[in-house]
Amino acid sequence: MSHSPIRFSFFGSSRFSVLILDELERAGLLPISIITTPDKPQGRHMTMTPTPVKAWAIERNIPVHDPEKLDSAFIEKIAAEGADVFVVASYGKIIPESIINIPPRKTLNIHPSLLPHFRGASPLQSAILNDTKDTGVTLMRIDEKMDHGPIVSQEKVHIIEWPTYDTLEKEMAEKGARLLIRTLPGWIEGSLSEQEQDHAAATFTKKITKEDGLIDLNGDAYSNFLKIQAFHTWPQAYFFHEHGGRKIRVKITEASYRDGHLDITRVIPEGSKEISYQDFQRGYRALS
């Protein structure tokens, strides 16, 4: 498969990364190599599984690296490939200065928020949880600190009604990729300027945990709805229910919010398949 005239290597590991790569491919922009995190054990049998980015690269015969450590051997290998610029999107590791400064046009990062707001690992979930409907994507040059580098370009996005996380992730990944497509030519030729972030205005996100998904059905309806939408992919919002003498976890897979009311429509009771919330109320609650 032929590569684009702009020589770039891509660092990424998640579904967000793949969505960006898909959009770049549609525009005829393919990386000369891809760097992702190592295979990890997954599933009941703990089978070693590549990241979705590695699978994407293999399907297209693009050279892929998945180093355990970003050490001198890796640096030598990646430097020899001669990229004009590195592009990062949801890689999952801190990239040291010794790597981000290898290409002549340094390293750009696609971040799904309007930096300096929502720096860190969970900008999309945090935007939903905080009901920040004026959001967007940022293309920034990476420096030695997390999401701290100067801004190259941004695109604002206004959300009317909150979709689920995976729907928002797809929209923001595609917008981020198109922003990169528009920006790269000028960045490579050196005709674009960059702007320092307002670090005093920075806000930070945290790593999402499984426990964050717990909701109180008697709590604020809109806050619960935001949690359901933000955690739709993982860890999924859930509540506990006493059933058959034990406490079971019930995941909420679908809900809506109208006129101050949370309407839960689909759930997955622990050890069961997905059912309607009405069936859950008729069955599980009746047997409690």
How would you describe this structure in keywords?
288 residues, 7-stranded mixed β-sheet, 24% strand, alpha/beta, 4-stranded antiparallel β-sheet, Rossmann fold, Methionyl-tRNA Fmet Formyltransferase, Chain A, domain 2, 2 domains, 8 helices
Compile the SSE list and pairings.
Blueprint: E1 8-11, H1 15-26, E2 33-35, E3 40-42, E4 47-49, H2 52-59, E5 64-65, H3 72-79, E6 85-88, H4 97-100, E7 107-111, H5 123-129, E8 134-141, E9 151-158, H6 165-189, H7 221-230, E10 238-243, E11 246-258, E12 261-269, E13 275-276, H8 277-283
Parallel strand pairs: 1-2, 1-6, 2-5, 6-7
Antiparallel strand pairs: 3-4, 7-8, 8-9, 10-11, 11-12, 12-13
Helix pairs in contact: 1-6, 5-7
Short description:
By secondary structure, this protein is α/β, with parallel strands linked by helices. The chain is 28% helix and 24% strand.
Question: How would you portray this structure in words?
Answer:
- The protein is α/β, with parallel strands linked by helices and 288 residues long.
- The protein folds into 2 domains: 8-201, Formyl transferase, N-terminal domain (Rossmann fold), CATH 3.40.50.170; 210-283, Methionyl-tRNA Fmet Formyltransferase, Chain A, domain 2.
- It is 28% helix and 24% strand.
- It has 8 helices and 13 strands.
- The chain has helices at residues 15-26, 52-59, 72-79, 97-100, 123-129, 165-189, 221-230, 277-283, and strands spanning 8-11, 33-35, 40-42, 47-49, 64-65, 85-88, 107-111, 134-141, 151-158, 238-243, 246-258, 261-269, 275-276.
- Strands 5-2-1-6-7-8-9 form a 7-stranded mixed β-sheet, with helices on one face. The chain has a 4-stranded antiparallel β-sheet with strand order 10-11-12-13. It has a two-stranded antiparallel sheet with strand order 3-4.
- The longest helix has 25 residues, at 165-189.
- The N and C termini lie far apart (59 Å).
- The mean pLDDT is 94.
